[in-house]
Amino acid sequence: MRRPSCFRVTGALWLAPLFLAAVLLGAPHSATAAPDAAAVASGERIYREGVTRSGASLRGAGVNQVLLEGREAACGQCHRRSGFGTAEGAFVVRPITAPDLFQDRAPAAASQRIAHQLGVPTRTPYDDASLARVLRTGVDAAGRPLNPLMPRYALSERDMRDLEAYLHTLGATPAQGVDDADLHLATVIQPGVSATRRAALLAVLDAFVRDKNAAVRREPARRQAGAMRMQRAYRRWVLHVWQLEGPASGWPAQLAHHYEAEPVFALVSGIGDQDWTPIHQFSERLRLPCILPLALLPAHGVPNAYTMYFSDGLLLEAEGIGRMLAAGHAAGHVTQVYRAGDEAGRAAAAALRRALAGTSLALDDQVLDGAPADARMGRAGDAAVVLWLGTSDLGARPPEAPAVLPRSLAPAALPPGWEAARRVGAWDSGPAHGRRVRRVLDWMAARGIPVSDEAVQVNAMFAMSMMGEALMHMLDSFSRDYLLELIEHEVNVSVLPSMYPHLSLGRDLRVAAHEVYLDDGAQPFSASAPEAERLGSR
């Protein structure tokens, strides 16, 4: 089902970093001949992985002739996957996209005022000969030596041609899903999501869209009189809802059908209580960013360059519960309860078993089938009963042993008699949490949106806000990889609230929250294994 909505991004009133601005003023690069696909693929591997066509590791000499090899020598280590470079302290790594390297970057200006704002190119354009020279000797197209931080590479003629072929394509054209007027986005909803949670998500997304539309009604007039950067930043957003149906085996075909009907620039937010892996793998295949979905079961054990998760969801909570129990009990018995056929409960139970492996705690499973749960959950003398159950399965009375509930499944307000149960989750509770999310709740109240699912609504607002912040900085350089790099930065520095007290993303960090909180307000503890172990190699 498609649910199109539109909003426009307001122009940024402050400048992007200077090292980026020079690139954004250029017209899209277009090669004069179709590139050789094999050469481009080989060049991309050199650029991203530091592996040549023969399979040998790329080698380069860095500062003080320190040898760099393989991935450490790859161009993308400094210039990033997007080719837009980066900055670290006083050091600036310049963009090396095709428009920046190979064109004069002197687009036609509509007026003298805009021409003055554009300025003049700051770098002599490269050709293939001068590019080969700078890569091998560090002397640029104008005959000037580069900073010693730029490695000098020992590249064969074939590898040089391959890398040149790839650089001629890097950032040469906008990604699918964007044109001169519109930028298309989609949000994915898995089957089985309750009507309440689905409505909570879409209410926030729709209100966000309405606000953006209302804020830019006079944007066309401002473009005529305003800054060039505002003009170039202007795009109308079109948001689509991709509702999945049936078993997960059919989702790839459904996603492909949605994308073929209307390609999108990125996926944003979304929600699901089942394994997110099919959507994750779809994003990897298409190199399609998936920004902060509300996934109860994020993908594990697969490469991840394009999906940014809030947390490991229910698996983070299982790991945290395991560490909490191990820290509080030298020995004893734990029962964990989940319902037959519940994919999330079964996955969480397996994660808790892994977390308790090697401890002195014995763990048994109790699988419910048919009848509602009741006080028979667990057994007398249990150190704890862990309930991977939804609200309807909690029963009229808690179990005799201390009950532990994951926050992502437990209701916001526990039923009468359950006050002693401990809730463990990836965000805190109490006054600090209330103050943090107050801004979003006030925003919702002003728009008549009831708080039907605080976690869904607050995090959906954060995901949309990160997308908006990143796109304001992109101007008209619509690279999917660059979008991810900007969101990495925005998440780290944003003052906008999410449910999580601390979020951090980075080059190889695609899961933002790693702390677990207890309902009694105790200090958080880190419960996440290193991401390289969880998500596999990049």
Q: Uncertain regions: pLDDT < 50 for 5+ in a row?
A: 1-32, 529-538
**Average residue pLDDT:** 84
Rg, Å, rounded: 26 Å
Structural class: alpha/beta
**Separation of the first and last Cα atoms:** 33 Å
CATH class of the largest domain: Alpha Beta
Second CATH tier, the architecture of the largest domain: 3-Layer(aba) Sandwich
The percent of residues in helical segments reads 25-40%
Widest beta sheet: strand line-up: 15-14-16-17-18-19-20
Q: Could you give me the name of the CATH homologous superfamily of the largest domain? A: Response regulator
Our count of helices gives 18
Note the quaternary state here.
single chain
- Count of DSSP strands: 20
Strand content: 15-25%
What does this protein look like?
β14 (332-339), α14 and β15 form a beta-alpha-beta unit. The chain folds into three domains: 29-167, no CATH class; 182-313 and 430-535, 3-Layer(aba) Sandwich (Rossmann fold); 315-425, 3-Layer(aba) Sandwich (Rossmann fold), CATH 3.40.50. The protein has 538 residues and is α/β, with parallel strands linked by helices. The protein has a seven-stranded mixed sheet, covered by helices on one side. A six-stranded mixed sheet has the order 1-8-7-9-11-13. Strands 3-2-6 form a three-stranded antiparallel sheet. The chain contains 18 helices and 20 strands. α2 crosses α7 (157-167), α8 (195-215) packs parallel to α16 and α16 crosses α17. The two termini are 33 Å apart.
